[in-house]
Design brief:
Oligomer: single chain
Number of domains: 3
Distance between the termini: 53 Å
Number of helices: 2
Strand content: over 45%
Helix content: under 10%
Length: 466
């Protein structure tokens, strides 16, 4: 390993700069130098990447103090420097001192903190804090968190505690990321643990203000493997190419629907078949329409619908995925249109409206002009249809809609023809209405599953958590 002899030159340069001149405004030079009464750093044993507490008492009865320079040395490497302002003839210093871990940092390494105090007339004195020991961090696992919210687990290798490996991944071929020791319960980074990112174009420990690192897996459709070596600070990836059963935005086109931007893909989906989700499509925030997809894992779904040609719709703002088909009609589907229904999403109305002005979680209307005007109920057995929707609108707590057999307003299903069980949120004889009159109870806006039995003329409504 090439050694860098930094310390002697930096420290000598600081001393020369401090004593090389004397400003006339301070008058004649007095024979005075600062005096270190005490100086310490705690704890004495620490982990590189942690913060120490540096304390010092410095006096100079003859001349006002001006500054305290420090440098942290491990082996022959200066790994941190800083300068603190002082004032008066007595200074009691207590400051947080971050000790980074550098590339190829040794374990159980002696650490020294060199101090230089200076007064306003450039008089100086130095002091060493010794007896400190720095240890390399070791983690059972690390979390790779991409800037768009994807998370991958990297496990420590049993044969090399400095290497962390993630396999069977489906990340994009290019992504920005941070590596975190800890996550909060909402899967955001917990900066009380160690976090790695970009430090001057290299991998290094960062704080909350630090930058993400960048990864590129050349000649690949996606990234399927990652190895991070936190001794050599190398980050390597391996890639894969899309198969017939892989869903990736690289295969999707773009389409504007009802003044919202969608990514769309038309393909044949097979009942009961599993499909891998590549890149952002595997984001756990994405909600796949539960009437047509079963989420098997972060990066895999099973198709529940009838085998056939479908268009898959992905809305990157709503973060939901649903399917449509040409001329959907009975007996395969019922179509509900009207006011106050929306395909489920984990994104709030405020977040949606911030991008699509005036749009809410609910999006249906009276009509069949596009796939946002209506929602599909899928036939799950003879005469029985299931649809899971967010309703009523969280801005007005009202809904008024009706199922039809086709886009030609065919054979409408009036509320008065059915008996409603489960959540008693529907009223009316014609439209299926969730009222919001002055004397009506407020119905909670939530995801509800409607199971419509055309044989028994019953509708069961169940509130569901997705």
């Amino acid at each position: 390993m090439k050694k860098t002899y930094i310390y002697p030159f930096i420290f000598a340069a600081v001393i020369i700069a401090m004593i090389s001149s004397c400003d006339d405004e301070y008058g004649p030079r007095k024979e005075s130098s600062p005096v270190f009464v005490s100086a310490a750093a705690t704890p004495a044993t620490f982990t590189f990447g942690d913060t120490l507490t540096l304390t010092a008492e410095i006096i100079d009865p003859a001349t006002r103090l001006s500054s305290l320079f420090y440098e942290v040395v491990s082996g022959e490497n200066v790994i941190a420097t800083g300068n603190l302002s002082l004032s008066g003839d007595t200074a009691n210093v207590s400051t947080a001192l971050f000790v980074p871990m550098v590339k190829n940092q040794g374990d159980n390494a002696p650490v020294t903190i060199n101090l230089i105090a200076q007064n306003v007339l450039k008089g100086t004195s130095s002091h060493k804090i010794e007896g400190l020991t720095g240890n390399r961090p070791s983690y059972s696992k690390l979390y790779l968190v991409t800037d768009n919210g994807m998370i991958a687990l990297l496990n420590q290798q049993s044969g090399d505690k400095n290497k962390y490996v993630g396999s069977n991944l489906t990340l994009d071929a290019t992504f920005r990321y941070k590596l975190a020791e800890k996550l909060h319960t909402d899967n955001t980074i917990d900066y009380s643990g160690h976090v790695y990112g970009n430090v001057g174009g290299m991998t290094g420990l960062i704080n909350e203000a630090g930058e993400s690192a960048f990864a590129y897996t050349a000649s690949s459709d996606y990234t399927k493997g990652i190895t991070f070596d936190n001794l050599a600070y190398t980050f390597t990836t391996t890639g894969g190419n899309l198969g017939a059963d892989d869903l990736s935005l690289s295969s999707f086109g773009s389409e504007d629907i009802d003044n919202e931007s969608f990514r769309t893909l038309t393909l044949t989906l097979e009942n009961g078949k599993s499909y891998s989700l590549i890149g952002i499509l595997g984001d756990r925030m994405n909600l796949y329409n539960p009437d047509f997809f079963e989420r098997l894992s972060d990066n895999q779904v099973k198709f529940l619908g009838k085998t056939g040609e479908y268009t898959v719709y992905y809305n990157p703002v709503r973060k939901n995925i649903f399917v449509g088909t040409n001329n959907p009609a009975y007996p395969d589907y019922l179509l509900a249109c009207g006011y106050g229904l929306g395909y489920p999403t984990r994104v709030t109305s405020d977040e949606i409206s911030a991008v699509y002005s005036g749009h809410k979680r609910t999006h249906t209307s009276w009509g069949f002009g596009n796939v946002m005007n209506y929602v599909l109920l899928r036939q799950i057995s003879d005469g029985i249809y299931q649809g899971t929707f967010y309703t009523p609108g969280d801005h007005d707590h009202y809904a008024g809609f009706k199922p039809f057999e086709n886009t030609g307003w065919g054979n409408e299903k009036k509320a008065g023809s059915f008996t409603f069980t489960g959540e008693q949120i529907i009223s009316g004889d014609n439209d299926w209405t969730i009222p919001n009159g002055e004397n009506d109870p407020v119905v909670e806006s939530a995801n509800y599953r409607f199971t419509v039995n055309l044989t028994t003329k019953t509708v069961h409504i169940q509130k569901v958590t997705l």
